[in-house]
Automatic annotation (TrEMBL):
Region Disordered, annotated ranges: 1-21, 54-73
Compositional bias annotation for Low complexity: 1-18
Domain HTH merR-type: 23-70
Name assigned to this protein: BldC family transcriptional regulator
Pfam families: HTH_17 (PF12728)
SUPFAM superfamilies referenced in this protein's UniProt entry, alphabetically: Putative DNA-binding domain
NCBIfam families listed in its UniProt record: HTH_BldC
Highest rank taxon of the organism: Bacteria
Source organism per UniProt: Streptosporangium jomthongense
Record InterPro entries: BldC-like, DNA-bd_dom_put_sf, HTH_17, MerR-type_HTH_dom
C-alpha cells in the first residue's frame, strides 16, 4: 500500500511525518523557465517534466524536480 499523499494549503506536499516538499504551480514553473504555463503542462503530458496531481486534480510540480532539471539533471 502506498503512503498517503497530502497537499497542505501552503503548497507543501507530504508523504509522511518527516517528508514535506514545496509544490510549484504551472505559472511558477513557467516563470522559472521563461515559457507560457500551457507549455509547462504540455511538458508534463509528454513526460518531459514530472508532475503530481492535487486532490482537486490540479497539476503541480515538486520543487526538487525543477531544481534537478535546472541543474542539467
Amino acid at each position: 500500500m502506498s503512503p498517503l499523499k497530502v497537499v497542505t494549503p501552503d503548497g507543501t506536499f507530504t508523504t509522511g511525518p518527516d517528508t514535506t516538499e514545496r509544490l510549484l504551480t504551472p505559472g511558477e514553473v513557467a516563470r522559472i523557465f521563461g515559457v507560457d504555463p500551457k507549455t509547462v503542462n504540455r511538458w508534463a503530458l509528454t513526460g518531459r517534466i514530472p508532475s503530481v496531481r492535487t486532490p482537486s486534480r490540479q497539476r503541480r510540480y515538486r520543487e526538487s524536480d525543477i531544481r534537478t532539471l535546472l541543474n542539467g539533471g
